[in-house]
Design goal:
249 residues; 76% helix
Length: 249
C-alpha cells in the first residue's frame, strides 16, 4: 500500500515538473524573441512576444517579470514620444497577462495599480484630445451621462439648456480618468472560496480515479463491486464539485 502511494506521488511530482519545465522554457523562448524584435526596432512584434511570454505563468518563472518590465519600458518610452496608442497597448498587455493568469490568487498583483493608472490617463487623454465635446458631457457616464440624457429628453425650454455647466478640458480629463480607473479596478476576480472548492473537486476526481485503479481492481484483474461503487461515487462527486466550483468562481 505504501509503495503504491509513493509511486503515485512520484508520478504526480514528475508530471508537475514536466509541466513547469514546459511553461518556463516556452516563456523564455518568447521573451528572447521579444528581445530580438525590439533590437531590430519592431516594437509591435516585440510586444506580441512579451505578451505571450508573460502568459506562460508558473510560480517562480523569472521571464514573466522580465516581460512585464520590457512592456513597461516600451510603454514609458512611447508615452515620452507621444505615441499614446503604443503605450496603451503595452500597458494593456501587462494588465491582460496578469488577469489572464489569475486563479484563486492574482500573481504579481502589485503591478495592477500603476498599470491601471497609466491606462486610465491615456484613455482620458485620447477622449479629450480635441476638447470636451457637448456629446461627451451629455452621454458619457463619467459626467452622469445617463441622467443628462434623460434630462435632455425632458427639457422643453432653452432655459434648461442654458443651465448646463461648461466643463474645461482639464476638469473633463480628470473626471474621465477617475471613471476609467474605477472601471479598471473592477477585475471581476474569481471567488477564493469557490476556487478552493474547485481544487478540492479536482483532487477528489483524480484521487478517486487512482483509488479505483488500485483498490477496485484486484491483482487478478477482477472488479471488486463494493469498492468500485464507492470509488466510482467519489469520482463522480469530485467531477461535479470541480465543475460547480469553476462555474461559480
Amino acid at each position: 500500500m505504501k509503495r503504491k502511494i509513493i509511486v503515485g506521488a512520484l508520478v504526480v511530482v514528475c508530471f508537475l515538473v514536466l509541466i513547469s519545465v514546459r511553461v518556463v522554457t516556452s516563456s523564455r523562448t518568447e521573451s528572447l524573441r521579444g528581445d530580438k524584435a525590439l533590437k531590430r526596432g519592431k516594437t509591435k512584434v516585440a510586444m506580441k512576444h512579451y505578451r505571450r511570454s508573460a502568459r506562460w505563468y508558473a510560480p517562480g518563472n523569472p521571464y514573466v517579470l522580465k516581460s512585464y518590465r520590457a512592456l513597461w519600458h516600451i510603454g514609458r518610452e512611447a508615452e515620452r514620444q507621444g505615441d499614446q496608442k503604443t503605450a496603451l497597448e503595452a500597458y494593456r498587455s501587462i494588465r491582460g497577462a496578469i488577469l489572464g493568469c489569475r486563479s484563486f490568487y492574482t500573481p504579481h498583483a502589485k503591478w495592477l495599480p500603476r498599470v491601471n493608472r497609466h491606462i486610465a490617463q491615456l484613455m482620458a487623454a485620447q477622449q479629450v484630445k480635441k476638447g470636451v465635446s457637448k456629446e461627451l458631457v451629455e452621454y458619457h457616464p463619467a459626467f452622469g451621462g445617463g441622467e443628462k440624457k434623460k434630462a435632455l429628453k425632458n427639457a422643453k425650454t432653452e432655459k434648461d439648456n442654458a443651465s448646463k455647466k461648461w466643463i474645461s478640458p482639464r476638469e473633463g480629463r480628470k473626471k474621465l480618468e477617475a471613471w476609467h480607473l474605477e472601471q479598471l479596478m473592477k477585475t471581476n476576480a474569481p471567488s477564493v472560496g469557490w476556487s478552493l472548492l474547485a481544487i478540492l473537486g479536482l483532487i477528489l476526481w483524480i484521487g478517486g480515479g487512482f483509488a479505483f485503479a488500485y483498490k477496485a481492481i484486484t491483482p487478478e484483474d477482477k472488479l471488486h463491486s463494493r469498492r468500485a461503487v464507492y470509488y466510482g461515487a467519489v469520482i463522480v462527486l469530485g467531477l461535479v464539485v470541480w465543475m460547480l466550483g469553476l462555474y461559480l468562481a
